[in-house]
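Hey, can you fold this one?
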Amino acid sequence: MNKKISILLLAVMPLFVNAQKESKEVDVTCALTGNIYQGDLTPTTLGSTKDLKFGFQGMVRYHVKNDKVYLRGSLNIASLKGDDAQFDSPEWAKHRNYSFSTSLIDLSAMLEFNLFHDDKKFQPYVAFGFGFAKINPKKDASKLDTAYFAAVSSEQIGLVKEQSMTQPKLLVTIPASIGFRYKLNATSSLFVEACYKTCISDYLDGFSLSVRSQKFDAYSVYALGYTFKLSTNKKK
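Sure. Predicted structure:
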């Protein structure tokens, strides 16, 4: 038995030593964000800069493996808005004339994969994960053109059904990001990122049954910030 234990310890010792040599760095990012709604009240998949709302993001990132894989958690505090009246196309949007606004508190956990090693100045990466968005949508359908949309239209019928529904205020999100960090020195970097967040719901804007598509809503978060390391020591 003792011989078997000794053999096992000798087998795993190189893995243990290697793990101890790896740097377990922690860094923090503070960023300004631009948030763009992408849902039923915008004519394009990518949304519109007319709906741009600014916010703030904080992020903590922890080194998981070698110098390419990180686990990170982030908090984004912002708001979102959408308004049919901003767009001339499609033609019916101005007649529907829906609008909404909401506060947004967004928490996410993601795995980040650096494309280059950590010793490079320019460090592009991709990241994906899951998150939650706390919202409080204030929607306005009072300007609906009832001469254009008849009483039997899906818009009017859907609005009646939505009035009796309890709409969610906490949504599950699936974020996917691309971005880069540019090293300024050994402990700090410039941070730039574009993150697309799909909501597992069509009620980000408060409308679902009263619009022409019941696809999931989404929003994008564009971030520019500063990353600084809390620890650069390697375990021995």
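Residues 4-22 have pLDDT under 50 and may be disordered. Let me know if you want another pass with a different chain boundary.
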